[in-house]
Amino acid sequence: MPQTTIFVSYSHQDQRHLQQFQRFMTPLERAGLIGYWDDTRLRGGDDWYDEIDRALRAASVAVLFISQDFIASRFIWNEELPRILARADAGTLKLLPVFLSPAAVDLECVYRDESGAQRRRKLAALQGYGTPQKPLRHRSLTWSDRERIYQQICEDLRRMAPADSAAQLAASASGAASGAASDPARVVSARPPLSPPPPASPPRERAAHAYVLNVQLERRDAQLDLRYTLPGSDVIESATLAWQALDPPPATIAGALDEPGGAALPGELAARWGALLGQLLLGLPAARLARLLRTLFDRPPPAAAPNPSWMPVHLRVCTSDPLLVGLPWRLARWDGVPLVDSGWQFSTSSVADPSEHPVVPAPAGVLIVAPHGAAPGQAKPTPAEATVSALADALRQVWPSPRRAENVRAVRTRSELEDALRGSRCHLIYVCGTLHGDPAVLQLDDGGAAGSLPLAHLAELIARTPTRPAAIYLDLSGQLKDLAVAVLALGELVPLVVWRRVGERQSDSTTIACAWLRCWLQNGLDPLAALHEVLAQHPTSREAATLAVHARYRNWTTVLAAPWRASLPHLKLDRDEQKALLGKHLDELVRSDTRRVLALVAYGSADNLLSELPEQLQYHLERGAERAADINWRRLQFPDSRHELARALEEELRLQLWAQSGETLARVLRRHAPNVTASGRRAVLWLNWGLARRGNGEAGELQPEALSDWLRFTSEVLGAGCPDDLRVVSYLALELDRSAHGELSKQLQDERWRPWGKNPRFRLSVLPPLGEVSEEHLYDFLVEEGSGCDPAIQEEVAQRLVAQTGGCFARVVELIEVAERGSWYDLLERLRQQQDGET
Fold first, then answer.
1. CA-closest candidate to residue 47, choices 208, 196, 189
2. Environment class of residue 725 by beta-carbon count within 10 Å: exposed (0-12), middle (13-18) or buried (19+)?
3. Which of 178, 264, 365, 616 could cross-link with 425 by S-S, CB 3.0 to 4.6 Å?
């Protein structure tokens, strides 16, 4: 491996800058001077977290593309950047910051040095390329200016390469020149990986965690004994804590959660409980904790001592004490920071070294136990009915086949439950309801004593089944005082028990359960890893903070169903008027003998996801196989400088299309056009100049004069340079307030009467302004095959979504994606609660 290895940290919002940078790295990598990695190297099936970790460990140089999106990225700020700064602090990693755009670089990033001490560093203090005051996207800098900066980075990296690599560069230069592809995209895709990739994991079986630590807890009189082990190892560390000295007492925490009303979890209380739980798990003296973590992470001296947040850990709390099983371990903190923020996952177990390996097929057998508790003929759905509908909907989307109905069964009475356990193979049992009495029982719909089901009896019923389930989800509320005892009993029979710890049912209880099922079964994940992924998306949820897992399996296999098809709301929803007009004008362009260039202008307000429109139009055109055009799509960047814009536009176009010295514009355009072989079809090159904010002089805004210059450039330069056998679409999107739509429309109408607007080789097409999503458009989208919404609720969903969002395109898409990650029925129930005040 080369001595100089590059790791690039960037926000996906800045991908076009990454692509520009990659072109300078490729020759150095091809020559063997550097190793290079960014996350575009990830492929389907890769464990992305492990791959990023491996690349970061191997790196000797980190290039940081700093923008506000970079700072806003939770993963970068909480995961990548602290580790990068820690290595830079230790002198094992060189930083090359690239300031892309104005950003809050005075914020302090918190990290820990090799001794474990907390440090803070401002990005503004880093010396790099560009400055916070004049970043690379400053309006005074052109594309060519940025090219020169990237060339300077390239030269600096070349100087860092070991001396004996210079010969490699000279020896490979001639071969690289002769073997380089003419298409730069081919060069980028042909790059070798940073090092030989690890053997691919089986696609349907994935390890849930990189590191596993067992903490065996045992109460003896007035003390708590702790023993730490790794899977298959003897005790590596131990400790004893005074039980009575723990503050707050663990029994107080459990009691607060067990009450039917549940416990509110304000930040102060969560922090106090979390500090105690962290002390219970990691309250060793500093030297012994350091020794434990070195063993866990396999980091012997002289490597820097890791701290608990160094890498994700699956911490298994091994105990048979109901009080300890019932504590909300996910709240545990170390040095004031929740461990779950560092990727830690928590479960309890009655065994320290489990050996089971459950296999869940596709589709799996699912039994939903949900007494409705409603009087016969009651019209209003009960919470249990709403939960059943949401779960069935989520499972239908995971397994979209007729067999799904045979594998998902809902029961309400004890007789139905016993019949289902005897007669069908259940891989997952989901129990929903309210516990009453002391001892607590679940009242099924048989009525009276016949319908009373203590959870201990549920364990007895499962023990008698010929094949036991792989997982149980206890979605229970009410009196939870004895629930931990039942969990221990069920845990002796079932590899995985997920259970609620809050007595009061939460508004997102069903939402989280459905999202977990989708994440687990649809992606083929380990169920505990899937649960952690889902709960991380609900950082302020009391449900997510206290949901508990009791597990006793070593490995888990989830068989994947046929690939799930997303409905792609941002591509398919609405925009019918814009699509129709584009199709008409594009057909006229390719059939015309005189026109060569179409200037296409789209506009709308900020909440209309205007940035998504080009992809939506591309999706629409590529599905229209009847159109007489083959299209190549090129994404360009509009010049930041508005000075002498016509000249800057041509210069940027040549640079971004990799024009050779002396190459004519006609040759450049033809080189990027599709190679049309079918008769009767026309080659079209689509140039997307991106999204600009319409304004009157603020940084980055597009003034009316600049829009006029762009139209003139499209007509006079592109129109004159376009070969006769090619057609060019020059696209620009303008974001502006609704109040300014009329003014823009008038300017565009006036542009048609300018001399360049009358050029016979040119046409200006203005798409209608993007508006709100109507009930009719939304209903059409839901009816389309692939949306996943049950026909029985499509009309009500369309009505309530539009009522909730006012037809705002961005909000409608956001809620559709929420339903697609979970359940349409759950989304509908939440909309009913918000709009009708139902509980």
1. 208
2. exposed
3. 365
